[in-house]
Design goal:
The radius of gyration is 29 Å and the shape is globular. Helix 13 (373-383) crosses helix 14 (395-407). Strand 19 (422-426) and strand 20 (431-436) form a beta hairpin. The longest helix has 20 residues, at 500-519. It has three domains: 3-205 and 368-449, Metallo-beta-lactamase, Chain A (4-Layer Sandwich); 210-360, Metallo-hydrolase/oxidoreductase (Rossmann fold, 3-Layer(aba) Sandwich); 460-556, Ubiquitin-like (UB roll) (Roll). Helices cover 32% and strands 24% of the residues. It is built from 17 helices and 25 strands. It is α/β, with parallel strands linked by helices. An eight-stranded mixed β-sheet has the order 7-6-5-3-2-1-19-20. A six-stranded mixed β-sheet has the order 8-9-10-11-12-18. Keywords: Calcium, Coiled coil, Cytoplasm, Endonuclease, Exonuclease, Hydrolase, Metal-binding, Nuclease, RNA-binding, rRNA processing, Zinc.
């Protein structure tokens, strides 16, 4: 590597650009790499059967000996969820705050990854740590989970500032405000590039304080006479603390329901991020024996996930909790894009059960954890970067954020909206696009990582839409004549007993195809199967306007 190449700094996003989720960014100088975050994304509707989506880490595997550390901004799944998969292939030390690494440890336990081989380094902001040629400042920010941080990475080329997910909450629940002084100090020193959260770049004004939700919850608790069930994100520990506080003030006991909620509450209690009087938290069985006006249940399912505790309650499928007419259900979260239908369905079922449902569209039971336009402008004005890269958002969010940057005086030629895999190359005075690396989506299905691709998804889609037809034929290997069959099995296409005429036509078509092969002395199995598929496919489309998957099985006897 030449000295000229070593003088250049590279920023390579592997995830989180043009999407909400699977956040992962490479900061590279010479033969040293820092990785920021390692997140997952939940599958889109057409990804049938897929559990989660993680970034393609081909570039990291190819350069794994250069990776000096993984910096983690906070403990949300879209920032830590891919770590169990990444750490199986890359051995690099982790750096994060106490709660963040506590949640990471919980994830690694679930996947039975050997934690002894993983170096976990707890950092308490404001702190600067040295990793190779880099000095990294950990800077406290506010978000919907405690212990969230941004980074200032001091490199030989200049300072790279990454906000992480943030908002500027002037009255945070735990009293720990964002370190605006540090961002201003960096701005006065001179920041080469700022990477800033774009999630709420479309929203005008300021994001409300989390304490506003606390006041709303308290008001609801004062007026409700029956049982209260609150669904929220398991990771929103400030929200959970405020629910416990409201329960305590109104002489109610609390039970926690849902695996992820129980796990996070236990970790937060162990690490001191939740303060709960011992008598307040009860087992669900004990709680069910109390009068309804003394009961609060905190649960998962704020996104209407089919297997979540709240959805099972709404569908009368939960073992221990049955929704009753005088119950009040608070859904204290906003829909993640794509989940709106699931949430609406859950709300409808809760209303059918006679419950009173309070949700974001009609109340103030949720505020965002991300900065709105005025806070984004303030961050830009504090840091005053030479170059600006909007991150963490769908493409329209990145564009809106770039417009805000122009409004505060950053020249348009110094703003870069990049895609996953694009390389940004910096010198002290310049920034340019410099090619691309492998990036994309790796689909996780059960224990399989990356073994389901576009072809399998296409097949699943076809099966789900048009079904399958299996054709079984036995052929005499000497003469090529049909000995038995063709037998046709239909699944998800038509009900055979009600479509006997169509099935008879289908059998005749298969026989025609086989006769044609015999007359033309075609003995290649793949060609025979192709002929059966072609003849049968035409008939079925003419008769039904459907294209089922056709699977010929030919046996020699």
């Amino acid at each position: 590597m030449s000295k000229n190449e070593q003088d250049k700094l590279l920023i390579i996003p592997l995830g989180g650009m043009g999407e909400i989720g699977k956040n992962m960014t490479v900061i590279q100088y010479g033969k040293e790499i820092l990785l920021i975050d390692s997140g997952l994304m939940f599958p889109e509707e057409e990804m049938l059967g897929i559990d989660i989506v993680i970034p393609d880490i081909t570039y990291l595997i190819e350069n794994k000996e250069y990776i000096k550390g993984i910096l983690i901004t906070h403990g949300h799944e879209d920032h830590i969820g891919a770590l169990p998969y990444v750490l199986q292939q890359i051995n690099a030390p982790l750096y994060g705050t106490k709660l963040t690494l506590g949640l990471v440890e919980g994830k690694l336990k679930e996947t039975r990854l050997n934690k002894k081989n993983i170096s976990m380094n707890v950092v308490k902001p404001p702190t600067t740590i040295n990793i190779g040629s880099f000095a990294v400042d950990f800077i406290r920010v506010n978000h919907s989970i405690p212990d969230a941080v941004g980074f200032a990475i001091h490199t030989p080329v200049g300072i790279i500032c990454h906000t992480g997910d943030f908002k500027l909450d002037q009255t945070p629940v735990n009293g720990e405000k964002a370190d605006l002084h540090k961002f201003a100090e960096l701005g006065s020193k001179g920041v080469l590039a700022l990477l800033s959260d774009s999630t709420n770049a479309e929203r005008e004004g300021y994001t409300m304080s989390e304490k506003v939700v606390g006041h709303t919850i308290e008001d609801i608790f004062k007026t409700v006479t029956g049982r209260i069930i609150v669904a929220t994100f398991a990771s929103n520990i400030h929200r959970i603390q405020q629910i416990f506080d409201a329960a305590y003030k109104n002489d109610r006991k609390v039970a926690v329901v849902g695996r992820s909620m129980v796990n996070v509450v236990n970790i937060a209690l162990d690490l001191g991020y939740l303060t709960i009087p011992k008598s307040l938290l009860m087992d669900l069985d004990e709680l069910n024996r109390l009068p309804k006006e003394k009961v609060v249940i905190i649960t998962t399912g704020s996104q209407g996930e089919p297997m979540s505790a709240l959805t099972r309650m709404a569908m009368s499928e939960h073992k221990k909790v049955e929704i009753m007419p005088e119950d009040t259900v608070l859904i204290s979260a906003s829909p993640i894009p794509g989940n709106e239908k699931f949430i609406a369905r859950t709300i409808d079922h809760l209303f059918k059960k006679g419950a009173n449902v309070i949700y974001e569209a009609i109340s103030g039971v949720h505020v965002s954890g991300h900065a709105s336009q005025e806070e984004l402008k303030l961050m830009l004005n504090l840091v005053r970067p030479k170059f600006f890269i909007p991150v963490h958002g769908e493409y329209r969010h990145l564009v809106h954020h770039s417009h805000l940057a122009m409004e505060v005086g950053i020249p348009s030629e110094n703003i870069f909206i990049v895609e996953n895999g694009r390389i940004l190359e910096f010198t002290k005075d310049s920034c340019k696009m410099a090619g691309r690396v492998t990036a994309g989506k790796v689909l996780v299905d059960g224990l399989g990582v990356g073994d389901v691709g576009n072809i399998v998804l296409r097949d699943r889609k076809q099966l789900s839409q048009d079904g399958i037809l299996i054709v079984v034929v036995a052929i005499d290997k000497e003469t090529g004549e049909v000995v038995s069959g063709p037998d046709i099995i239909s699944r998800g296409f038509v009900y055979v007993r009600e479509s006997e005429e169509l099935m008879e036509q289908a059998r005749e078509k298969v026989k025609q195809a086989l006769r044609k092969c015999q007359e033309e002395n075609i003995s290649e199995w793949s060609t025979i199967k192709s002929q059966v598929r072609e003849h049968l496919g035409k008939l079925l489309f003419e008769q039904t306007r459907r294209r089922p998957m056709i699977l010929p099985i030919i046996m020699e006897v």
